[in-house]
Each structure stands twice: as C-alpha cells, then as structure tokens.
Amino acid sequence: MSEAYRNRSxxxxxxxxxxxxxxxxxxxxxxxxxxxxxxxxxxxxxxREVTMHWAAHVPRPKPGTDCQDFRKLNRTAAKSGVRNxxxxxxxxxxxxxxxxxxxxxxxxxxxxxxxxxxxFSYGTKSRPSTPIAHVVGNQYATESEEALDLQYRMLxxxxxxxxxxxxxxxxxxxxxxxxxxxxxxALRNPKEEKEPFKLTKFKKVxxxxxxxxxxxxxxxxxxxxxxxERLPPEEGYAxxxx
Length: 242
Prior knowledge:
Blueprint: H1 3-9, H2 47-52, H3 70-79, H4 85-94, H5 113-116, H6 132-136, H7 139-160, H8 171-188
C-alpha cells in the first residue's frame, strides 16, 4: 500500500505522518485564514456610554381615574356569588368599577421650594473645582515669575533715580543711639543741682555738735604721749616733702 493511497483513503489509522510534523487531517477544512465561531454584532452601548451618561429615574405613573378598583371589584364579585377565576373574568367584563383617588390623610402637605421651582437645589454651595488645566500647564508658576520680574524692574528703576538709601534700624540700635544722644546732651548742657528739700524753718538752723573739745577716742590706738590735735585748715596746710 503506497503512501499516496493512505493519504487519499481518509482513514485516520492509515494516514502516516512525517517526523517532527503533525499528522495530516482527513477532514475537508476551510483555508487557513478562516475564523471559527459565531460573529456577534457590536453592542450599541459601550463603556463610554454607560459611564458618561446618567439615566434619570422615571417613576411609574400613578393610578388615575381610568384604573379599576380591584379590591372593590373582588368584594362585589364575592357578594354576587362568583366562586372561581373563570366566573370572575366574566364578571369583570360586564362590571367596571373605577378607582376613586383617596384624599389627603390629616393636614395638607407643606409646599417646599422644589415643588414650585423644579430646578431648586438644597444644601451648602461647595467650592469651585480645582483648575487642573492651569496646574498641569504651569500657569501659576508663570504668573509668579512675571510678578517677580516686575518687582525687580521696579527696584532697578528706583535705584536709577539716585535716591537715598534708607537704612532701617532695629529697636536695639535705635535705643543705643537715643541713649548716646542723651548722655552727650547731659555733658554739653549740665543741669543745675537742685537744693535738697528742707522746710523753711530749718534752713537757717546750724549744727549743734562741736569737735573742738575732743582730744582722742577710746577706740583709737595708743600713741604714747602724743595727742590728737585738730588738723589745721586746708588753706594753710603744706606737706613737707624733704
């Protein structure tokens, strides 16, 4: 049996494979570019539509006057002798009991702003959102640099006018300068010494204690036969340097 006959036979047992290669298939398959599976159409609503679109809640319509009152209808059917669902269907065909809207229980509800103005919003107003475009675009740094350049230009213009440079003193420096000026003023313009305060009746009273009769002191050291004499006046005193 030749290899060509084995390959044409379509028998998976007889087909011989080459070394290092897969066994040739016995089925008639589509070409290599063919895609298997079922092709599904693209979804009309993707992730962008789901995340970027907010679907507002639509409440169901409230029962109106054209709706049937099933509770009253069932009670009436029970009173009329209806015993099963089939008879109830027939009973509803010829008996139509409309729903009567119930009135407000208790006091009337209060009117709130959103009832009058549908676009009214409650709560405290929050701060505006951060301008991310200005932050990423480095706009604040650019404005700061421009303000600093303007400040330096104004400083250069003021210096170009040959204005006097003002030195700003500290508190300690000002205190030292004031104290020095005060001392200099006191030396240049000495103040007259004021007479100590004394009552008028005691101004002309002289001293009552006299030292003319004193010759020595009990606490003074012994000087032999020498006696303590009163020193001569300062005007007639002369020191002997020989």
